[in-house]
């Protein structure tokens, strides 16, 4: 591991406008957490919020009060966990998408190559982009990054696990559920496993997200707050939009529904299954697996039951494999 000690290093700049002025969010500390495709990957260790002008000094007491309230919200960015970036490669893109970039795209600044869904600082860079400050702009993802080596016999294997959290419809668990009317689901995450061994690289991608129709949970003091299905008649349309988008971006899709089939979650399972009947095809497949009933809290070996049910899909669709050329 390595850690830099310089202060106010312009690793990346983010720009935000509020009621009375503009602020610059600067990454001031980084921590090297491993490598990806041979390039160092850094975790954001510290952010600093800097005012860009002195307009606050000439404002009224009421304006200062409102600005202070917004500033408190802005400072939440300083405590945002799991922010990662690279100077040399684009963490927003999977290995397969990186390898399909055209020659012209590879010459563009990293932020212009980035996948907007996983570009955490997309909105914050807009003003800086307008002012052509490319040298200070780097794609940042929110999620997780783990890199380690292990061995099988005498072979050393390089393993990288990346989770990229989508910037659309984010929120904490239970406060943000289901999909919006455009089919974007709450807390969507793309996870990629990259394995390198003997000159070969293999990549496997899976995604997760909230059940893709309109529903919500009202948080209270109970362990499992009640949920409400909204505008149930729109479920088929929303589910179709969600899976057409997945099909376009990822190819064939297998949706594994892990919620309980009975009890309170049973209604979610039933509605999801019914809506999937309208979109199921050779390209889009739906499977329910009652995870809590079958595996409980400790019997994860029973996931082999799930694997047996989806093995044909995995064999058919495979994974990305690259050699040194």
UniProtKB/TrEMBL annotation:
InterPro entries: SAC_dom. The chain crosses the membrane at residues 6-26. Keywords: Membrane, Transmembrane, Transmembrane helix. PROSITE patterns: SAC. Pfam families: Syja_N. Residues 74-325 form the SAC domain. GO terms for molecular function: phosphatase activity. This is SAC domain-containing protein. It comes from Citrus sinensis.
């Amino acid at each position: 591991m390595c850690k830099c000690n310089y202060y106010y290093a312009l690793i990346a700049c983010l720009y935000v406008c509020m009621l009375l002025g503009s602020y610059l969010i600067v990454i001031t500390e980084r921590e090297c957490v491993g490598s990806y495709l041979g390039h160092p990957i850094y975790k954001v260790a510290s952010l600093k919020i800097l005012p860009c002008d002195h307009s606050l000094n000439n404002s009224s007491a009421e304006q200062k009060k409102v600005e202070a309230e917004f500033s408190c919200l802005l400072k939440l960015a300083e405590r945002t966990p799991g922010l990662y970036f690279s100077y040399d490669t684009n963490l927003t893109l999977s290995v397969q998408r990186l390898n399909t970039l055209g020659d012209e795209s590879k010459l563009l600044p990293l932020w212009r190559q980035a996948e907007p869904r996983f570009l955490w600082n997309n909105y914050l860079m807009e003003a800086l982009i307008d002012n052509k400050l490319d040298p200070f702009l780097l794609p940042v993802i929110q999620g997780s990054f783990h890199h380690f080596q292990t061995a099988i016999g005498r072979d050393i294997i390089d393993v990288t696990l990346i989770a990229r959290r989508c910037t659309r419809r984010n929120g904490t668990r239970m406060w943000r559920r289901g999909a919006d009317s455009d089919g974007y689901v709450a807390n969507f995450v793309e996870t990629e496993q990259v394995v390198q061994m003997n000159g070969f690289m293999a990549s496997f991608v899976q995604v997760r997200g909230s059940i893709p129709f309109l529903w919500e949970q009202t948080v209270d003091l109970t362990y499992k707050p009640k949920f409400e299905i909204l505008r149930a008649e729109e479920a088929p349309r929303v589910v179709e939009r969600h899976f057409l988008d997945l099909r376009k971006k990822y190819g064939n899709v297998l949706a594994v529904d892990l919620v309980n089939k009975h009890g309170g979650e049973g209604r979610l399972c039933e509605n999801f299954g019914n809506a999937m009947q309208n979109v199921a095809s050779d390209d889009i497949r739906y499977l329910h697996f009652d995870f809590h009933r079958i595996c409980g809290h400790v019997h994860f070996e029973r996931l082999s039951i799930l694997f047996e049910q989806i093995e044909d899909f995995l064999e058919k669709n495979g994974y990305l494999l690259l050699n040194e050329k």
